[in-house]
Amino acid sequence: MVCIPCIVIPVLLWVYKKFLEPYIYPLISPFVSRMWPRKAVQESSDKNKGNMNCKVADMNGLPTEGATEISDKKKD
């Protein structure tokens, strides 16, 4: 058996999206654009931005120095 909110909430969201949003959104969009202004994406002139120094890490994610040893867990 499905609970009432699991049926009612999706139906209300569908009704809002389908019928109410086309009338309400133009009214609230000027206020939303003032609160969250869009900022232009700026490209950096830094050529080394994509270069990262990656160090070797063991299985736990902790950095290790030198050669890593792979151990076989099945030792008889």
Q: Please, could you describe this protein's structure?
A:
- The protein is an all-alpha fold and about 80 residues long.
- It is flat and about 70 Å long.
- The mean pLDDT is about 75.
- It comes from Carlito syrichta.
- Pfam families: DUF4512.
- Belongs to the UPF0729 family.
- Interacts with DERL1 and AMFR.
Poorly predicted parts: none
Order of helices and strands: H
DSSP strand count: 0
Amino-to-carboxy terminus distance = 53 Å
Quaternary status: single chain
Give the overall average pLDDT: 74
* Largest sheet properties: none
Shape: flat
Structural class: mainly alpha
Family: Belongs to the UPF0729 family.
Region (Disordered): 43-76
Pfam families: DUF4512
Subunit structure: Interacts with DERL1 and AMFR.
Break the fold down into its secondary structure elements and pairings.
Blueprint: H1 4-35
Task: Pick out its properties.
1 helix, flat, UPF0729_C18orf32-like, 76 residues
Gist of the model:
It is built from 1 helix and no strands. The two termini are 53 Å apart.
